[in-house]
Specification:
The complex is a heterodimer. Chain A is mostly helical. Chain A is built from 14 helices and no strands. Chain A has one domain: MetI-like fold. In chain A, helix 2 packs across helix 8 and helix 5 packs antiparallel against helix 10. Chain A starts with a helix and ends in an 18-residue tail after the last helix. The C terminus of chain A is likely disordered. Chain B is an alpha/beta fold. Among the domains of chain B are: 124 residues, Rossmann fold, CATH 3.40.50.300; 131 residues, CBS-domain. Chain B is elongated, with a radius of gyration of 27 Å. The chains are: A mainly alpha, B alpha/beta. Chains A and B meet through helix 9 and helix 10 of A and helix 4 and helix 6 of B. Bound molecules: adenosine-5'-diphosphate and magnesium ion (MG). The site of adenosine-5'-diphosphate has 11 residues of chain B, from strand 2 and helix 3. Chain A: Belongs to the binding-protein-dependent transport system permease family. Chain A: Pfam families: BPD_transp_1.
Chain lengths: 313, 407
């Protein structure tokens, strides 16, 4: 005797009916249109990265690594990128990089405002939180099917799957960073008559920046981990090399693709981590971080004496 | 003096059902009853007071008595449940959104217990914050910030980060930030509470010095009665969200409204509350060139005094004691004895506002102390016993307070 003897639920049929019978016919054009910006950004970035000579790209990454992560990582970058080039995977690596950057860009564009809203409204956060939990815990293979049905196959759907998978840390840590800004500071901002926007820009984002950048780093890592899975639905790059290798039981090919992903992951991780730590517990303004990012290490000398905002009161 | 702030029947109830709580308050329920019955916290109940322009109004009470809530009601950081807060006639309780922000930008600023300086901005940028919010251009902001920093003696630190300064210096920055936009009202929530006692004294004196020229209307919160008595033109004692007494320092100390206030007052330094004016009596005098030793001696006996002041016209020339005069009379005979040989010219003069703790020394000599006005005219005399009597904690020993000369 089991519950199934009494009643069986055709759960899969319901989902099928919902997705096939309602969502796809009614909203397919909407979803198709939604992937246009992703496609535009991705194609341009991909074309650009493939156009720039390998030497130049490597130099740029090595320089960034040297500034934010130290000399060791800079040397690793040069050797690693040279290795990728020598095993003939440079174009695929650039395509993967374009996909990663595009995903992270959209994660930031969507995640930052969501995180800010979540920090400002407990109700919104209560609704959003389980959604994020679900997004992070559902095995990504599960939503590949509806994504293919709604968006089709190709690069853009692969990136959309990546965005869904990688966005939660961006939202979570933006929310956390802003909520952790000392209450008396936001109260002071209010007491001086600042608007919510002024407070966000002058106080909350700068003080949350370190946490937000940590979120960005995590998002980046999650996006990298989706490279192979996204390739299943038509995204190219290194993921495709791995999948092809897998399909043909070509250990060499799969490993080569895997090594490329690992090298890219290490370089990107270290650079973005260095960027976050450089912002010294959020004591830099957004403008300072932007100039830092553009100009590199020549940041204001006062940084060295700064302590975090949390320890004092 | 005109009232800058007038508060009428102000209530703040935190929680779900403020109306039910308000109704229960109307029927005489206590804060605890209401918390049990409705889960609502009564933070401020039925506060009514007014603050005159240029006055320091101190709210004193223990932790949890509702002081912080009260001060935040005044600039609308916390919305009131019921009541009126008129600032220059405009009701803050009814003001919302941009109009409320306007008031905060132009009329009322606030100074916080833990300074609440922005750690990622320089001292000068912190000071200029209110101006930035108002949209004042950067160079003008900087000039104004430097001027105010100069006023609080921190100009050399303009480009440091707040974290590099000591607590006292940080609060000076907080004060400068509050003053930079030239508000009319300053709200100060235990501004010196986080500072060491020595620094606190220094800041209190500095505030009083600044206030002499600035003449801001200040609502100052403290849990330290000595601080309240030192700074307050008017003092409100708060308990469980209610004002139990409002009055001058002298009112509070000499006539505590109930046992609660009495308990506070019991161990304060009365010498820093009462002034020479509070304990002086009308002078009984003699004229140096008009009165003989004999008449003077008789006048002294009539008033049962041991000594009195001798005037030459309007100016005080010295004092004579009963003992010296009787000796002179005995020596020179009633007809010839004048006041001059017995005159003591080494005497102490103070003005009405001098605090009693400064009179301990002179009173110890045992001679009366002359109280003079700005033109050096004798307006009163403080008997040494009066100083000592006032130090006695018995409230009964204090003279009736004189409201009009509060500080
Ligand atoms: N935001 C709030 N929500 C609920 N209760 C509060 C809130 N703020 C203060 N209270 C309560 O109101 C009462 C007065 O608090 P407060 O004004 O901070 O007192 P004080 O500043 O005199 O220490 C306390 O019982 C406190 O617990
Ligand atoms: Mg408080």
């Amino acid at each position: 005797m089991s519950p199934a003897d009494l009643i069986t639920i055709p759960f899969d049929d319901w989902i099928n009916a919902f997705v096939r019978g309602w969502l796809v016919p009614n909203f397919r054009p909407v979803f198709r249109a939604a992937q246009v910006p992703v496609t535009v950004v991705l194609n341009n970035l991909n074309a650009f990265l493939l156009f720039v000579p390998m030497i130049l790209t490597t130099a740029a990454f090595a320089l960034a690594a040297w500034r934010y992560a130290g000399r060791g990582i800079a040397i690793f970058t040069i050797l690693g990128f040279a290795f990728i080039d020598m095993i003939g995977l440079w174009p695929e690596t650039m395509t993967t990089l374009a996909m990663i950057v595009t995903s992270v860009l959209f994660c930031a564009l969507i995640g930052l405002p969501l995180g800010i809203l979540a920090a400002r409204s407990d109700t919104f956060w209560r609704i959003l939180r389980p959604v994020l939990d679900v997004m992070q815990t559902i095995p990504s293979f599960v939503y590949l099917v509806p994504i293919v049905m709604l968006f089709g196959v190709g690069m853009a759907p692969g990136i959309i799957a990546t965005i869904i998978f990688a966005i939660p840390p961006m939202v979570r840590l933006t929310n956390l960073g802003i909520r952790n800004v000392r209450g008396d500071l936001t109260e002071a901002a209010r007491a001086f008559g600042s608007t919510e926007w002024q407070m966000l820009w002058d106080l909350q984002i700068p003080l949350a920046l370190r946490t937000i950048l940590a979120g960005l780093n995590q998002t980046l890592m999650l996006a990298l981990s989706m490279v192979v899975i996204a390739a299943l639905i038509g995204a190219g790059g290194l993921g495709l090399i791995v999948n092809t290798g897998l399909g043909r039981l070509d250990v060499g090919g799969a490993t080569a693709g895997g090594v490329g992903i690992v090298i890219l992951a290490i370089v990107l991780d270290r650079i973005t981590q260095g960027l976050g730590e450089g912002s010294k517990a959020g004591t830099l303004s957004v403008g300072q971080v932007l100039t830092r990012t553009l100009r590199g290490r020549g940041a204001a000398p006062v940084d060295a004496t700064v302590t975090g905002p949390v320890a004092r009161n | 003096m005109t009232d800058k702030i007038t508060v009428k029947n102000l209530f703040k109830i935190f929680g779900e059902a403020p109306d039910a709580a308000l109704q229960m308050l109307g029927t005489g329920a206590t804060k605890e009853d209401i918390l049990d019955a409705t889960g609502a916290t009564v933070a401020v109940q039925d506060a009514s007071f007014s603050v005159a322009e240029g006055e320091i109004f101190v709210v004193m009470g223990l932790s949890g008595s509702g002081k912080s809530t009260l001060v935040r009601l005044l600039n609308g950081l916390i919305p009131a449940t019921f009541g009126q807060i008129l600032i220059d006639g405009q009701d803050v309780v009814q003001t919302r959104g941009e109009a409320l922000r306007e008031i905060r930008r132009n009329t009322i600023t606030m100074i916080f217990q833990h300074f609440a300086l922005f750690p990622h901005w320089s001292v000068a940028d912190n000071v200029a914050y209110g101006l930035k919010v108002k949209g004042v251009p950067a160079t003008e902001r900087r000039d104004r910030a430097m001027a105010v920093l100069d006023q609080v003696g921190l100009a050399p630190w303009a480009d440091s980060l707040p974290g590099d300064l000591s607590g006292g210096m940080q609060q000076r920055v907080g004060l400068a930030r509050g003053l930079a936009s030239d508000p009319q009202v300053l709200l100060m929530d235990e501004p010196f509470g986080a500072l060491d006692p020595l620094i606190r004294r220094e800041m209190q004196d500095e505030l009083l010095t600044l206030q002499k020229t600035l003449k801001k209307t200040i609502v100052f919160i403290t849990h330290d009665l000595n601080e309240a008595l030192l700074l307050g033109d008017k003092i409100a004692i708060m308990k469980d969200g209610r004002f139990v007494q409002i009055g001058t320092a002298q009112d509070i100390v000499s006539r505590p409204a109930d046992d609660y206030v009495q308990a506070f007052v019991a161990d304060i330094d009365r010498g820093r509350v009462f002034t020479a004016g509070d304990v002086s009596s009308d002078p009984v005098t003699a004229q140096l060139h008009g009165d003989s030793a004999e008449t003077t001696l008789r006048r002294m006996e009539d008033a049962s005094l041991d000594a009195l002041y001798v005037l030459d016209g309007d100016t005080v020339s010295g004092l004579v004691t009963h003992r010296d005069l009787s000796a002179a009379l005995h020596r020179d005979g009633p007809g010839d004895a004048t006041l001059t040989p017995s005159l003591i010219t080494d005497f102490t003069t103070v003005d009405e506002g001098t605090y009693l703790h400064e009179l301990y020394g002179p009173a110890g000599i045992g001679l009366p102390i002359a109280v003079t006005d700005g033109d050096d005219r004798l307006t009163g005399v403080v008997a040494p016993e009066a100083v000592l009597a006032q130090l006695d904690n018995e409230a009964a020993a204090a003279p009736a307070p004189r409201m009009e000369d509060a500080r």
